[in-house]
Amino acid sequence: MKNSLDLTEEFYVGDWYVEPELGRLTKNGKTQQLEPKIMRVLVCLAQNNGGVVKKEDFLTNIWEGLHVTQHVLTRTISEIRRVLGDDPQNPRFIQTIPKIGYRMIASISDSNYQRPQATSRNSYPAMPMPTTHLQPSPSFRYFIAGVLTVCVGFAMLFLILIAAHGGGHSN
Hints:
The protein is α+β, with helices and mostly antiparallel strands.
């Protein structure tokens, strides 16, 4: 396998911004997470941009001595295709080379090319703010009413006991 690019840093696969250390891909503000092994397969394909990566090379270098079948690699490639929106019948990112392996056919570029503003090492996608005010559920309101009722009951009992004992004064 050739390593023409150092892809320990961020890079682009087509329009997708890839952050290997964080295991995420971003496009048009939409972020997708990949499991570490799946990300390693994507990075391996990108490092060999245009070159065929043999199935055996994936199994040896990604799963490092673990006994896994080619079915695991097939599922991994399918997951990458799903995230990228790639169609194996009409591929734009990953081409299957029957009985041999896979190759990256999408363009690979450096992260300095056009890094998205919303994505950085220390930020996460913004959470949407609710458009309505939060209202407590009816069961929560009943719970609070019950607690208040018990508190008022104890306060009244306390006052009755004080009154019955003469306010605490002995005559």
